[in-house]
Amino acid sequence: MRKIVIYIFMLFLIFIAGNSIDVIADDKIQNDTQPKNTVGAIPNIKFDEYKYNFGKIYSGEKVTHKFKFKNLGNGELIIDKVKSSCGCTAALSSKKNLKKNEEGEIEVRFNSGKYVGKITKSIFVHSNDPVNPKVKLAIEVKIIEEVSVNPRRINFGIVRMGGSCSQNIEIKTLPESDIKILKVETSFPYIKLTEKNKNESVCNYDVMLRGMEEFGKFNGFIFVHTDSKKKPRIDVPFNGEVIGDITYYPSRLSFGTVKKNREAKKSVIVTLVDKNVKIEKIEIEPPFMTYDIAPLNDDSQVISVHLRQGEFSGKVNGNLMIYSNSSIQPAIYIPILATINN
Amino acid sequence: MKKYFCIILAVVFIFIFARVSSSYDRFVLFFSGEEQGALIPCGCFEGQLGGISRRDTLLNSYKKQGIFIIAVSTGDLIKSPGRQEEIKMGYLLNAMKEMDCLLHNLGEKDFEIGPQALSFASQTNGINFLSGNIEIISPFPIKYEKYLLKELSGFSVPVKIAFLSIISESVIDAHLLDFIRVYNPLKSLKPVLNHVKEKADLIVLVSHAPLEESIEIAESFPEIGLVISGHDIEEPAESLTYVNETPVISHGTEGKYVVIADYVVKNGKIKNKSVEAVPLEDKIEESEKMQLLLKQYQQTLKEEDLLNNIPKLPLEKGSSYIGSSVCGTCHKKVYTHWLDTSHQKAYTTLSDIGQQYDPECVNCHTDGFGYVSGFADYETHQNLAHVGCESCHGAGSNHLNNIGEPYGLADEKRCLECHNSDHSPKFQYENYWEKIKHPKEILSNISENTQ
């Protein structure tokens, strides 16, 4: 009996010991986070400034600033690394090892690239300073454009065939730059550009899309020509889609590469834009493909296409064919693409 | 003796019972987002962060440890409209489905894809879309919720987490207002919070707003337990801010970091153990499943022939691209030197990794891509593959037709179009210039070669 009691008590002690391991582990983690090198010779990094404002610069310009620092400690200061928050900001240290009272510099180069507006970037200086092992430096800059166009891209969205859609673009020049807008043009035949109100530094254009008789997506550019040497031409992309009585998405069913004898499914959503239009028949080719339909609401339905290829291997170039009573879209062919391999 | 035995046994049982009943469960919330089309870190140089492949590996490392994990996508899968972005959105959503992602919060950039594509994405991917203060007015049915209440199973006590969502009015572009209405986040959150605060043990807000605005929301609603915020924060590790006890943190941009919020459930209460932004570094192994998906993505780009379907810009002064070997007819010494530079291998580095059909990559690995007469595909424009003469000097036809017409001079600005912060952060003009600097040449037979 006594033996049993002892065994149980020993088990109990082991159990408690298990708990205490957790505590030890926690202590260890805490110790690891304590600053190192806190006794003896201690380096101390001190910057003259921690933030620098470049003021205004033009888009595309590059600027440089040197952050000066000193080792105020009595131990050797070692700069481990200098890291910037993004690649547009390069930062280099003039020295890696600095003795007591020695001075160094962190050179920060900022490339504005395509940035516009107020930008703040951070630079982190990692060193063996036990109190400040990671010092944050910051640069601020306001990037301005000689000529700016708003919006930078025009999205006409979905336009009914034969319908029209109008958008506005605003072109601004810096008043002090004396830059002139020479011409605003596009080679896209269905877009008409009309100058609206104009003053010395702001000009508005009405961008009217009209008369497109072809279904599908369209895109192109509007060109703003200026006498700026930095940016003589600004390209404003535009995009949209012309739809008819029926619209569908995506425009093709791409299965990619499918392993032989594996089933695969892709879906297309078909929407009846004209309430009087009805789908009369749906067909699919090749024959080893099947489809099923699930309604989403009164106008839209999901057609799921299943690839059950059996023994077939190689490239599939099929079609999902939707027939309707629409006079402008009596038949829609949605391409089906797949590669079946072993 | 029997008496002592009973006492010890009782003490042991009480201790064990107390230990078992107080044993905690653990769950992890895993947030990623603002990919802005970055499925992979650009392979142009080593050490870049991010990618769905590493994200999957990291996520699975928690699953393998038997930790309950909820993955959340916070929004902005793409950065602009366009077919390539649509394809990316599809693949990113497929990736999230593979990662058992619970929800996708709609960011303002997701709306850029347009109502029809968004309808397709919301109806066919099986992932819950969330948008708390947006009303979508679209002829295409878009499925989304204002909030989501998730009950975690397998815990010693029932655990319910409410996921709320807002988007800042300040980040919505005017053209999006054609099909969405944005309401004030604070006003929109109030009724939702009243509804969920009694039901949920933890309230998480996914906020598509500048950090300052998210902090303001956290201050207004102390019942929110965690705020995942944006917007455009490049150094997410620095973003962690506590509003009272509520952590507000960002996962940064382009999917480079994920936020991992670790919770314990102890004595029926949820306690936050840690919140941190974790970088997806190259030491994290690539996931085989995601690599396969990325291959499929490249295959789709090829099938859709995107290279030939992008809009093309006209060139100035009616010039056109002629190809490096044509330049080499006269500029023999320079051309021979170029053949030994890395620029001459630029296209090969892409085709070697199967990304030669990706317009985003091809742009910087060929001559004149995206311009009339520039590179469109290898079959028809072999002479424009690689970074040739005209990448730096501009299209050469005018100079070919009239040697009095000078070709463009290469300068740092030209280099920076490709050697930019994302793809070539180590770029130093002076050092890199030495690698491609041409030898001096004497053109003795210009007239006969330009006939």
Task: Report the helical percentage of chain B.
Answer: 25-40%
CATH fold-level name of the largest domain in chain B: Purple Acid Phosphatase, chain A, domain 2
Q: What percentage of residues of chain A falls in helices of 4 or more residues?
A: under 10%
Give me the number of helical elements of chain A. Answer: 1
Q: How many DSSP E strands of chain B? A: 14
Any idea what the CATH superfamily of the largest domain in chain B is called? Metallo-dependent phosphatases
Low-confidence stretches of chain A: 15-38
Strand content of chain B: 15-25%
Write the H/E string of chain A, N to C: HEEEEEEEEEEEEEEEEEEEEEEEEE
CATH class of the largest domain in chain A: Mainly Beta
Distance between the termini of chain B: 117 Å
Strand content of chain A: over 45%
Work out the radius of gyration of chain B.
28 Å
Q: Please give the largest β-sheet of chain B.
A: 6 strands, mixed
Number of domains of chain A: 3
CATH topology of the largest domain in chain A: Immunoglobulin-like
Ranges of chain B where pLDDT stays below 50 over 5 or more residues in a row are 17-24, 447-451
* Overall pLDDT of chain A: 84
- Class per helix and strand makeup of chain A: mainly beta
**The CATH architecture of the largest domain in chain B:** 4-Layer Sandwich
The chain-level structural class of chain B is: alpha/beta
Folded structure, characterized:
The complex is a heterodimer of chains A (342) and B (451). Helices cover 9% and strands 57% of the residues of chain A. Chain A is mainly beta and 342 residues long. Chain A has three domains: 45-144, Immunoglobulins (Immunoglobulin-like, Sandwich); 147-243, Sandwich (Immunoglobulin-like); 246-341, Immunoglobulins (Immunoglobulin-like), CATH 2.60.40.10. In chain A, the strands form six sheets. A five-stranded mixed beta sheet of chain A has the order 2-9-8-4-6, with no helix packed on it. The longest helix of chain A is centred in the first third of the chain and has 31 residues, at 2-32. The model of chain A is unreliable at 15-38 (pLDDT under 50). In chain B, helix 10 (324-330) packs across helix 11. Chain B has two domains: 24-298, 4-Layer Sandwich (Purple Acid Phosphatase, chain A, domain 2), CATH 3.60.21.10; 313-449, Flavocytochrome C3, Chain A (Flavocytochrome C3, Chain A, domain 2), CATH 1.10.1130. A six-stranded mixed beta sheet of chain B has the order 4-3-2-1-13-14. By secondary structure, chain B is of the alpha/beta class. Chain B is built from 18 helices and 14 strands. The interface between A and B is large, with 56 and 54 residues.
